[in-house]
Structure formats: structure tokens, C-alpha cells
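Notes from hallway chat w/ T.B., transcribed later so I don't forget. T.B. wanted the structure written out for a chain they're using in a teaching module, and asked if we could keep both sequence and C-alpha cells in one place. Agreed to drop them here.
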Amino acid sequence: MTVSSRRPAHQPTDAPAVGATVQYVIDTLSSRIVAQEYGLDERLPSERQLAQDLGVARNTVREALDQLEDREMIRRRAGSGSFVTYDPSGSTSSAAPVAADTGPLQLQVVRGILEPEMVRLAIISMPPRQIEALGETLSKMEAVQADISAFVRLEEDFHRQLAEGTGNPLLIACYNLVIDARRQAFRAAMYRRHLTPTRIAAYQRSYNALFNAIAARDIEEATEFMKLALVEDQKLLLQED
């Protein structure tokens, strides 16, 4: 097989610098694509929907999509929309090895550092439309009764939206690594054993309380709920020992 010297699709190019808001959209969408929230050949939401979700103007989204197309992460089809062309199987990203090499306790240490500060920054920075979108994710979580995979996926979405709500591209990228590490086999097996319908209901109540604190812009209460969630995960890890 011929080894290509072409740069990885998600790496920056030598294109002219863009504005901070455009860069935020680029970083957010590229992180979602690399994390396979938008899979290969999947159609992205419309420019209008992305503008609403990210709290930016449509021309900002359009400029970001132009950049992503230049980086060969998406292909834009006239009259049809934008489609993902990034293939994770061909990526040279170091994210997967880092996530695979991260143990359960190491993951908890990093989450303990990032998540309380992440929710604090999100409360300061999130516009109302992003809080509304977070509430929609919570509603989907609360509709889950016993589907472990669905609950875990929505839990990831909830946390990713909080990371994106900080408006900090570096924090968003770091937290995508955390999500990759949370997807490792040890955690999936742990959830299969312990995430019963009763425990799902308990988590739903906790996330509801967390969301209410976020919506009320109550930093102290929200960070406390985030810390309590970390304690619950720590208890599950201790049960595995």
C-alpha cells in the first residue's frame, strides 16, 4: 500500500487566519466529526440549525464550513448540504492511543480537574439558546428507562454541550479526549453491570438538578452537583476492585 504524504484531514492548513468566532465553529464541528458524532457520509445540520445551536450568525457558519471543506473534512453539495468526508480509519490522530492508554483512576483525576471548572465557565458563557439545547438533551435522557447505550450516548452529548458552552476551543478538544477515554472497554463493562433502571432514574434526577442550577446560573450549586456525579462514578470504580 502506498503511503500518502498528505496531511491528516483535520489538521490546520496554511490558509489565512480566521476570526475567533469562526475558529470556534471550526473547532466545535471538527471535534464532533473526529469524535464521530457526525459519521462518514452523514449530512451535517443545515447552516441555519448550526447557527442556532452554536449561537452564531449564519455567515460565520458558512465561513467555517468553507474552511472544513478546504481541510477535506466535509464536501458541500449544491442544493443538498454538507456531508462528512473525514474517515477515522485513515486518521493519524493520537487521540485514540491516548484514550486507550488512560486507566480508570487516571480518567477520574482528569475529570475532577476539568468538569467542575467546565460547568463554571459554561454557566458564565452559554447563551440562552445553548441552555435550551442542553435542556432538550436532558429531556431525551429522562425518556430513557433501560437502554444503557442510549443513556450513555446522551450523557456524553450533555457533557459535550457543556464543554462547547465554555466557548474555549482548547477545553473542547481536551474534553473530547475525556469522552474518548470514557468510551474505553472498562467503562462500558462497568455500566453494563451497574447501570440498572433504578440507577438510571437516580442519574436522571441528578442531571435534572444540575440543569436547573445551570439554567439559574447558580455556579456554586452546579459545580457541587458535578462533583457529586464524579463521586458516584468513583463508587462504581471501587465496586469493580
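Follow-up for T.B.: The first strand starts at residue 74 and ends at 77. Might be a good example for the class.
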